[in-house]
From TrEMBL:
Name the UniProt record assigns to this protein: Pimeloyl-ACP methyl ester carboxylesterase
Protein species of origin: Halopiger aswanensis
GO molecular function, one term: hydrolase activity
InterPro entries in the cross-refs: AB_hydrolase_1, AB_hydrolase_fold, AB_hydrolase_sf, Epox_hydrolase-like
Annotated keywords: Hydrolase
GO cellular component terms, A-Z: membrane
Length: 301
């Protein structure tokens, strides 16, 4: 366990870096109202060969509350930038789940055009921007919340913010989150979050650890986010969804994969939104193939 001091709080993170490896950095950003343990199946699988970093985003897990009056995906991305700089990590593969996928997309947008490493024979510095990503893996990837394409000015009029505020004050985060899940299931006819009761229960426990105030700040950050265009992104990107994912979210995943210069989308059967936990073996396999492809591409340059 370690902490990075911020101007208005602290950021909890954990590294797994066996001295015998010093491998490619994999940096994991969890979903909304979860925490870094959401990536445990991947950490356990990749820790022997890769340099692993997990973190708890503001308002979540052991990071908990910070002094910021309001959160944003941009602020979460600032924190990620600060952490990678603090750890002196170069060319990471960024792995984002749900909310974390938004953070990674914002990061990719900031580093658009940085995915192609120049030929060293040209004399160019291939790592002039040390935190430029080498690749991205997005699980349960979503572009916006609600997951529909709306002009940013329209979002406040369709957001369930007022109703959510009332529910939070009366029932708390866990019951409020359960109500959100029930609404999604009524709309889609699917379990959505997870097809595995144990995974759903663990997610609900994580939500229950988030305070009312922090739950609301995170929710507002999700709803306010206006996703950037990704057409200038040339970082290889893998988008993975479960077949029980909401159709609107899967469409957004297809948009991500088609917008970046080198993107592909994979759907795993018998999995929901938390696809990395519902089908950990399959998720790890497609991720490993993707990582091997990255390594082969770099070696060929």
């Amino acid at each position: 366990m370690a902490e990075l001091t911020l101007e208005d709080g602290r950021l909890w993170y954990e590294t797994h870096d066996p001295s015998r490896t010093r491998g490619q950095p994999l940096v994991f950003v969890h979903g909304g109202w979860l925490n870094g343990t959401a990536w445990n199946p991947q950490v356990e699988h990749f820790a022997d060969d890769y340099r692993i970093v997990t973190l708890d985003v503001r308002g979540h897990g052991q990071t908990g509350a910070t002094d910021a009056d309001r959160y944003s995906i941009e602020l979460f991305t600032d924190d990620l930038e600060a952490l990678l700089s603090h750890l002196e990590i170069e060319r990471p593969v960024l792995c984002g789940l749900s909310l974390g996928s938004m953070v990674v997309q914002e990061y990719l947008h900031r580093h658009a055009g940085a995915g192609t490493v120049p030929d060293s024979s040209s004399g160019a510095d291939a790592t002039s921007n040390g935190t430029a990503p080498a690749g991205a893996i997005l699980g349960g990837a979503v572009r916006s919340m609600p997951p529909v394409d709306l002009p940013s000015g329209v979002k406040p009029f369709v957001s369930p913010g007022p109703a959510l505020g009332t529910a939070l004050s009366l029932t708390g985060p866990k019951t409020t989150f359960r109500s959100l899940l029930q609404s999604i299931r009524a709309t889609t006819g699917q379990q959505w979050l997870s097809v595995d009761p144990e995974v759903r229960a663990a997610a609900m426990d994580a939500v229950g650890e988030v305070s009312r105030a922090e739950f609301r700040k995170v929710f507002d950050a999700l709803v306010r986010y206006d996703p950037p265009e990704l057409t200038g992104v040339d970082v290889p990107t893998l988008v993975v969804h479960g077949e029980q994912e909401a159709p609107q979210v899967k469409r957004q995943g297809a948009q991500i994969a088609s917008a970046v210069a080198d993107g592909r989308q994979v759907t795993l059967e018998k999995a929901g939104h938390l696809v990395n936990q519902d089908r950990p073996t399959a998720f790890n396999a497609v991720s490993e193939d993707f990582l091997h492809g990255l390594a082969d591409g770099l070696a060929a340059r």
